[in-house]
Amino acid sequence: MTDTAWIDAALTSARPQAVGALLRYFRNLDTAEEAFQNACLRALKSWPQNGPPRDAAAWLIMVGRNAAIDEVRRTSKQQALPEDEAISDLDDAEDALAERLDGSHYRDDILRLLFICCHPDLPATQQIALALRIVSGLTVKQIARAFLVSEAAMEQRITRAKARVADAGVPFETPGAVERSERLSAVAAMIYLIFNEGYSASGDTSEIRKPLCEEAIRLARLLLRLFQSEPEIMGLTALLLLQHARAAARFDASGELVLLDDQDRRLWNEKMIAEGLALIDKAMRHRRSGPYQLQAAIAALHARAARPVDTDWAQIDLLYGTLEIMQPSPVVTLNRAVAVSKVRGAEAALEMIEPLGERLSNYFHFFGVRGAFLMQLGRNEEARVAFDRAIALANTSAEAAHIRMHLDRLIRDNELRNAKTGKGK
Amino acid sequence: MLYAILCYHDEDFVGSWTREQDAAVMTKLAVVQDKLKKQGRLGPVARLLPTTAATTLRKDDPPVVLDGPYAETKEQLLGFYVVDCESLDQAIEVARDLGAANPGGAYEIRPVGLFNPGSVRT
User: Fold this and answer.
1) What tens digit of pLDDT does each residue of A138-156 get?
2) Contact status, residue A100 vs residue A63, Cβ threshold 8 Å
3) Does residue B55 sit in the same domain as residue B111?
4) Distance from B121 to chain A by nearest Cα, in Å?
């Protein structure tokens, strides 16, 4: 590894811990970020000459803190002295700093840093952008690219989000057990959002948006290292790994979506699957099930099947059944119906989704799935109507193209049948 | 004399390799391994899954199972086993049996991602 590549990697991996600790000192996001930037500049000068420090994060925190204090002292000659609260913990002995870094202190620092990005006033897209900027340290340009918006628009979005977070007041007190667990689930949900932002991309943009999936996995692993005994965090990490493992097989050469049954399973990433399976195995031992674990367990059953016919649909049906109880949602029922169609046939599956029609009347997948069930039952005319509706509701061209493929198949089957019956007469 | 060579690196860094980068490294390593294997000098080689997949059995009385890797620094690595198990639960059972035979210290249980049994003759 070259010097710069090593330093880049070290700065990126130390970032959440360093910015989190600096935020605790300065209680201001901009000051903390600035202090970290200064520390990084000094690292780029110092590390190639003096070699890497033993603990990169501790080095960056120390240097960043001192640089920011110098800055405050320098400007204070012209301005009034800052209030004491603006620079907290300044009296801490430097020895104590390294010691505290080894303790559990930084765990709450990183959680806080992630948590302030999940502020309920912020719309999901702003939460994600803020987390990618502050916690992951992606540049505005990189984030803008992943979101397919202009750099200026993204800059504005992040500035707004920061202002909102600053106004809302950052929770600095060490959280209690209940609060910590609430923060943890908010942060887990945000990480899942980041992943989905990348995962739901269509074929032509999936490559550009892939860094979102990778970053979500990195953050999930970070969270898991901080909270090693949380089965839902194991489940979340496993879920992201198992889904991302299929990335290379999800789109064909022309960018069309390839369904699970039709994917070339040799393209699945075995390493990610192995890690995901190990994590779900580990989570299950706790016997404290949760939505991420259940979804990961479902993804694991798909990953374990060498061929589509080997899939344990009965078990998937059971898992979705549990998920339905834990997190009732028409989308979960819709997914369950797919498993039911494999176990008990399309008739039973169709019956299961009929009550969902009203709530999912604008949901692309509902009509896609309904159309597929009707087609299996030979109710082609009704299937065609459902597919037409699905195309009208498609969010991406890949989705529409996929349904069109079903429609083409219907038409072909019809022609074939007509030809056959024609012969029989 | 048999020597164990233990591999240390930043798992975030190695974990961020693309499939192609990873494969390129593994291909280069395979050249070195194959040479040793032909000479009958290569013992088992294992690539472990990340520490997030680790579980630790503290061999206290009674033994305690903890999530995560073995994090203490006051003990030293003295040896390792490779066992074939159906599940993590089974692996923990094996570790418990070993621990009952030799209490004190800890076992870190890590799933093996890649395994090459080697060819060593002793």
Assistant:
1) 889 989 988 888 999 999 9
2) no
3) yes
4) 30
